Amino acid sequence: MWHLYNLIQEGDKVRAAGIRRVQNVSATGSVDSKRIRLHLTLAVARLTWSPSAAPGAESGTAVGAPNAAPAATATVEVSGRVAEQNPYVKLGAFHTLEVEANKDVRIEKEAGGWDSIALGRVEESCVPGRGAEVAAIVCGEGTATFCLLSEHMTVVLQRLDVPIPRKISTTSSAHEKGLARFYQSLYASFLRHVPYSSPSLRAIVIASPGWVRDGVFDFIISEASRTSNKPLLAARNKFIKVHVNSPHVHSLVEALKSPEIASQMKETKFAREGMMLDRFFKMLASDEMRAWYGPDHVALAADRGAIGTLLISDELFRASDATQRKKFVTIVEDVKQKGGEVLIFSSMHESGQQLNQLTGIAAILTFPLDIEVVETEEREAKEEEERRRAEENGTAE
Q1: CA angle 58, 5, 297 (to 5 degrees)
Q2: Pairing mode, strands 341-345 and 307-313
Q3: What is the pLDDT of residue 281?
């Protein structure tokens, strides 16, 4: 569904099945109203993404499995005016189609609309087994956030907050009881949300400051032993404990860069993105002439064939302005043609959101370039071109 959301643009024509209330007026003046199912073609005016909080379909958990979650409910709402004649709906009438998984949909684009980015997205969406690859619990004392990470998004499943009284030297019973409630709630949420028996799940990350992660892991394993939960005990080798500085979701980027996870996740798309973004920030601090960002500056670097790795957010390709989208597509194609690497970040990942805060596009250059020198060269070249045209016009007159 995320691929579909990124494929459909304003101005496209989308055909899918939908429900619409239709009224018929009889000869006597009575009105008969009924809801019918029909296929409509809309000229897209607005697109809305409704994410799913259910990991089942995303992660490949078998239906009926002990820890199966409800089916994913992610939808894409397509709004616009009816573009093709229909017996029940007038041409130009406004309608909203709700496109779901396993529902037929047809997308028509104008000439040039099926560019290399769109075609690459279609090709990528046809590759099977792209479900959740990592489950993560980012926790602190009394707090926990459950997430699933696939190649293209981070889904926050639940945020847990259990108050734990402070430990006092004279008596620690209240603290211990609060801690026990926290562990019990966390374990119940873990069974409900984490598809630990799914073959596609590569790792279960428990990240926290301090030593909270050790207590959480020990409790999960001890409860699995006590309740004879064999699938969970069999998944014990999937657990990875990682230190992070903050018990918040944005710490996932820090966790994914850790050597423990990087060694296992090095082939996954989001791990590669996180590592390259970290490399860009380090280079920006130590060698800024090889770390450029911003659409105009990156375009200048691409013209000079200087880009080794291009970091670009998928949000830029959803621009309603066709000229803007074409500009970014041209940059991507240019970098690929000159042998550079292109990483398209998902704005549904923490790394993609960080890149969006940095204009959504950045580049690691293969050789240093001074921005001021390049801009001066561009300005002089432009002035020379204007001077030459003026001379040509004067000669023609």
Answers
A1: 115
A2: parallel
A3: 93
Confidence grade of residue 264 (pLDDT, cut at 50, 70, 90): low
In this prediction, residues 210-224 reach a mean pLDDT of 92
* Residue 251 vs residue 397, higher pLDDT: 251
What are 337-384's pLDDT values in tens digits? 999 999 999 887 888 888 999 999 999 999 998 888 888 888 888 888
pLDDT (tens digit per residue) in 156-167 = 888 999 888 877
Please, what's the b/e burial string for 16-46 (b: 16 or more CB within 10 A of its CB; e: otherwise)?
Answer: bebebeeeeeeeeeeeeeeeeeeebbbbbee
Q: Please determine, for residue 132, whether its predicted confidence score (pLDDT) is greater than 90.
A: no
